Amino acid sequence: MSHRLKAALVVAAGLLLLSACTGPKAEEKPTAGAGPETTQPSGPLRVAVISHGTAGDAFWNVVKNGAEEAGRQLDVQVEYNSDGDPGNQAKLIDNAVAQRVGGLVVSMANPEALKTSIENAVRAGIPVITINSGEDKSAGYGALTHVGQNETIAGEEAGKKFRELGKKKLLCVVHEAGNVGQAQRCDGAKTGFAGDVQTLQVDISNPTDAESRIRGAVQTDSTLDAVLTLNSQVAARAVSAIKAVGSTAQVGTFDLNTDVVGAIKAGDVVFAVDQQQYEQGYLPVQFLKLYRDNANVVGGGKPVLTGPDLVDKSTVDTVGKYVQRGTR
Prior knowledge:
Blueprint lengths: L2 H20 L23 E6 L6 H17 L2 E6 L3 H13 L4 E5 L3 H13 L4 E4 L3 H4 L6 E4 L2 H14 L4 E6 L5 H14 L2 E6 L5 H14 L5 E4 L2 H14 L4 E5 L3 H9 L2 E6 L2 H18 L9 E2 L3 E3 L4 H10 L3
Parallel strand pairs: 1-2, 1-3, 3-4, 4-5, 5-11, 6-7, 6-8, 8-9, 9-10
Antiparallel strand pairs: 10-12
Helix pairs in contact: 2-11, 3-4, 6-7, 8-9, 10-12
């Protein structure tokens, strides 16, 4: 065999061996922890919670407690801010987007005022979950889901409760002008009560005037035998107003605080519609963590309901201890 032929055979054998060893290219594995594309793809998740709560509002303090506790448990950085003015609330959302947070939790008492800011957040790749109010606008604005109670259903339950108590004329006290959720509560109460329902506008920022307006309403119309307030702080004012004029009207309210718990025990408030707002802070942080880490979307296109749960004398002792610690 010639030298050239031997060399050619060696080269061919080498090429055959190389082909056998190489084989088909292995399939590349996805990067660990890969999930939906967001503005914060790695490291601790940073979530901005932006509500329409006013300073010192006991209700929103519980929402904040829920969000911060979820952050501690899940290693999520939670930043809570609030402003009762819709324009200022929109600016808080814009600031969070500019800071490229990893997720947004927003209450929408005035959805139209927040529409552009929320849509800008979604376009920037920031997942948004809405809470508390604005359920019917949430999906249209691009939010992943809505967490809260259905205000119309909650109002209906309150109205039914008063009807079961034999009441004939109901006053529904609205404390935030332009808040769509409060309008839905009163509308629901009208349906559930199936009787004479009137509305009264007061300003939660002026509690003395709110009490004066409620007092004037029950004093002017002695046939009013039921008063539904939409906030625990307003409930205390309603109780004082009714006692001041010697009215026999009974008070029911939305939301709980320690004063309402005490008033239920004393018989001054007959029930409270509890929307379990701790969950409205806690669950969205958990949902955003699941979305970032595992592409999970909760709710199947429907809102995740946190209420209503009616608290009265039969349940107030159990629930009251959690109100005391700031989780109900």
